[in-house]
């Protein structure tokens, strides 16, 4: 499916102008995994004397943790400001296999390895997907309090100063290379939990402070449309947990969400049951109840141990960069439509932005400017914009009515669809298609949609 849409898709953004950097031939190792960066020194950027470049990362979720680790390993004096060290970010916690490898995640922070997924239609037709997975392939299920703490600890081990504090605002530089002054409330042992107002001077700032980003507000980054997502963690009996051992469920239908899906994702000793919507936010609790009812027989008798809700950005902010401040992760608006996936994209954008700073500053030796940070945006848009666009189209086509959702679930039974979908999800690369299978799939898709439209017309007649 993704491959078909991609082939007909045009309009990749062009690199923006204003890049005045030169490329040095020097290549430097960045991590133990032998990742290498080319060092691009901005022709005009002055050296920073007597110290290294100072960068503050605001927010210690996956975006912030990944950014801070990369910066610290790249010779930058790094400060990671997180308001709540035991934050349990409301989240389904599903991560693609490639994230485990790319971010060297230890297996003991992964609660479950999901190898089976049930896609359940409005009329409760369940299609098993995952049959095409190879023996080593799975979707990781994590608890965010575990993943986020792990990434922050790793940033600290790499040399970042991790500060427990609430970022409040920042004063913009008064001259071209002058510092940003960050104001935050510190909560460390010296403040006895009461909090103390402090300031921090840095040369650049990465805003990784999530959907309600204050860094975004500081640079007038503009708003985005958002979904509200609701989730309950439900502890179920061992017997019932056995069913969800390596299985996740996705429910579609007007009852569970008019424009998204409901989910049951397995965690260590509980399941996470949730749903989301952009268009009918006031009804979110009604949709949550419907999701629970659909899964009823499998979670009955369970105890709700946590109720959580949070916005999910629907698209990137109008502005993601200003001068020496860049936004990453949810602060920038990097969640995919259709799947609502944002953890991998948060970590990846954090790392990409940090790499651009390390490169532009020659490992902390020079001042950076907007053109250095812009390289991150250019690379990001070039790499992921098609993925976002395809998932946007899929959501518009298949989540718009119950007949369309029935068609969608019917299509998911196709092994080729499963392979393409899983390959794209697990590896974040658009899987190369097989022309004959692509053609078959196109015919089937049209057939399913025609049936869906015919069904919708019949239903409309009935409701007149
Ligand atoms: C209910 C729900 C389910 C989801 N399920 C999935 C899923 O299964 N898979 C998936 O990939 N994505 C999922 N997402 C999306 C995913 O949670 C986000 O895309 C991801 O968390 C973005 O990471 P981030 O680091 O950019 O931001 P966040 O994870 O939001 O982290 C921001 C961090 O900044 C801190 N912070 C905020 N403001 C300040 C401040 N002023 N000062 C200091 N610190 C601050 C916060 O405490 C937090 O730790 C889901 C989202 C929701 C709401």
TrEMBL record:
Enzyme Commission designation: 1.3.1.83
Keyword Oxidoreductase applies: yes
Enzymatic reactions: phytyl diphosphate + 3 NADP(+) = geranylgeranyl diphosphate + 3 NADPH + 3 H(+)
UniProt keyword terms in alphabetical order: Chlorophyll biosynthesis, NADP, Oxidoreductase, Photosynthesis
Top EC category: oxidoreductase
Keyword Chaperone: no
Biological process terms in GO annotation: chlorophyll biosynthetic process; photosynthesis
GO MF assignments: FAD binding; geranylgeranyl diphosphate reductase activity; geranylgeranyl reductase activity
Pathway assignment: Cofactor biosynthesis; tocopherol biosynthesis; Porphyrin-containing compound metabolism; chlorophyll biosynthesis
One annotated Gene Ontology cellular component of this protein: chloroplast thylakoid membrane
Residue ranges of domain FAD-binding in the record: 54-86
PANTHER family, A to Z: GERANYLGERANYL DIPHOSPHATE REDUCTASE, GERANYLGERANYL DIPHOSPHATE REDUCTASE, CHLOROPLASTIC
Family named by the database record: Belongs to the geranylgeranyl reductase family. ChlP subfamily.
General function of this protein: Catalyzes the reduction of geranylgeranyl diphosphate to phytyl diphosphate, providing phytol for both tocopherol and chlorophyll synthesis.
Name recorded for this polypeptide: Geranylgeranyl diphosphate reductase, chloroplastic
GN (gene name): CHLP_0
